[in-house]
Amino acid sequence: MAGIYLHIPFCKKACHYCDFHFSTSLGAKADMVEAICKELRLRKDYLEAEQVETIYFGGGTPSLLSADELQKILDTIHQLFSVSNTVEITLEANPDDLHAEKVRELSHSPINRLSIGVQSFFDDDLLWMNRSHTGTEADSSIKRAQDAGFENSNVDLIYGFPLLTDAKWQHNIAQIIRLDIPHLSSYAMTVEQGTALHHFIENKKHTPLNEAQSAQQFLHLLHQTDQAGLQQYEISNFAKAGKESIHNSNYWKGEKYLGLGPSAHSFNAHSRQWNVANNAKYLASISQNKVPQSIEILSLNNRFNEYMMTSLRTSWGTDFAKISRSFGTKYLTHMKARLIQFEEKGWVIQKNDHLYLTQSGKLFADGIAADLFIVDDEN
Ligand code: SF4
Q1: CB neighbours of 367 closer than 8 A, spacing ≥ 6?
Q2: Most exposed: 6, 21, 27, 160, by fewest CB within 10 Å?
Q3: What does the DSSP assignment read for 133-163?
Q4: 59 lines ligand 1 (CB under 6 A)
Q5: For ligand 1, what atom is nearest to the CA of residue 129?
């Protein structure tokens, strides 16, 4: 089973915290759709005839594409790949794009899952982030999507930024629960180099982020979602039973995926490839029938480290038998020796030949995984 990811590199406004690849100049949108269709043709053999189980329009802001543009890409995929009858097709959408006509069009398209970028229901937070929508639009877009039959939707929320008091954060989560959203992705705000947020903090125009606030709000998140029956199946992802994202779960399970468009990554278990993160260079190269990409061949250590980083964050945990099978017993012995320190702190537990994070360990997930990595000179 494989996935296809399409990166739509356009946004109406630049959110101050965002370091994804996008352009706010929308003039090349039609050319980009043509180029992505052409890249699909150039790379039609990448998935080696594996059936496509998920298609994900990410970005950027894919809800800026018209229904016809989305359909053109989907038609091209169907012409070139074997697509499952039960394919999950997700579209990331910003609330201000989900007006009545757009939602009606989408409800008549093959797209069966929306991922709505709400981030907060408070206007002062949204203004601080430089989002393109208001809290009222966030709320009404969700209700419109539900009324149109999108039952399998996700909402994104961000926590851990100075304006967000604990009371506002608890209100945001409660709103998701009240609206009966079956899937929530929630990430802590981070300050990435090159973003406006980084610049504002460096120049003392914004208060720096506070790690203790972020940790406290993460614990609120765990508590409120648990009470509401939204199961945490990955550190930052919560879902009602049966509403987990198949696309993202496949990433974490190490399934193959093909990524198209500027900056998109692809993975086939042995290598990782990524396209140039520049719209003009991407378009010029595709027009010459050349995919502008770089490749990294993954060593056994790379693959083990990647497995540790992703599996430990999930509710299905790190599988000891899989480590022995895929990497060899030496890797399992190394990991078991290293994890004792974390067991003593109560951050991980071993159960049924799997390793899991405890509630307190979830605060340190990436650090624990990184400590279990094997670096090349340890071989
Ligand atoms: S809409 Fe999404 S991709 Fe675009 S700038 Fe904002 S966070 Fe980044």
Answers
A1: none
A2: 27
A3: S-HHHHHHHHHHHHHTT--S-EEEEEE-STT
A4: yes
A5: 6
Euclidean distance between CA atoms 66 and 44, whole angstroms: 24
pLDDT in tens, 317-343: 999 999 999 999 999 999 999 999 999
Counting from 1 in the atom list of ligand 1, the atom nearest the Cα of 130 is 6
Q: Does the CB atom of residue 372 touch ligand 1 within 6 A?
A: no
Which pLDDT value is given to residue 245? 98
Under-70 pLDDT residues of the chain: 376-379
Q: CA-CA distance, 254 to 327, in Å (whole number)?
A: 14
Cα(16) to ligand 1 centroid in Å equals: 9
Check: CATH 3.40.50.720 for 2-251? no
Strand partners, 184: 155, 238
Sequence-distant (≥ 6) Cβ neighbours of residue 181 within 8 angstroms: 142, 153, 154, 155
CB of 257 within 8 A of CB of 251? yes
pLDDT of residue 269: 87
Confidence (pLDDT) at 375: 80
Out of 3.30.565, 2.60.120, 3.30.60, 1.10.10, the CATH code matching 300-378 is 1.10.10
Domain coordinates in residue numbering, the chain: 2-251, 300-378
| C-alpha 218 – ligand 1 centre gap (Å) | 22
Residue 206 to residues 165, 209, 212, 225, 232, Cα–Cα distance (Å): 16, 9, 17, 30, 32
pLDDT, tens digit, for every residue of 242-270?
A: 999 999 999 999 899 999 999 999 999 89
Angstrom CA distances, 160 to 50, 165, 187, 370, stand at 40, 9, 9, 23
Alpha carbon of 131 to ligand 1 centroid (Å) = 8
Q: What is the pTM of this model?
A: 0.96
Predicted confidence at residue 342, as pLDDT, reads: 97
Kindly report, residue by residue over 194-208, the tens digit of the pLDDT.
999 999 999 999 999
| Residue 307 buriedness (CB in 10 A; 0-12 / 13-18 / 19+) | buried
Q: Report how far residue 266's alpha carbon sits from residue 47's, in angstroms, rounded to the nearest whole number.
A: 10
* Cα 283 from Cα 121, distance rounded (Å): 37
For 59, phi and psi rounded to 5 degrees? -175, -150
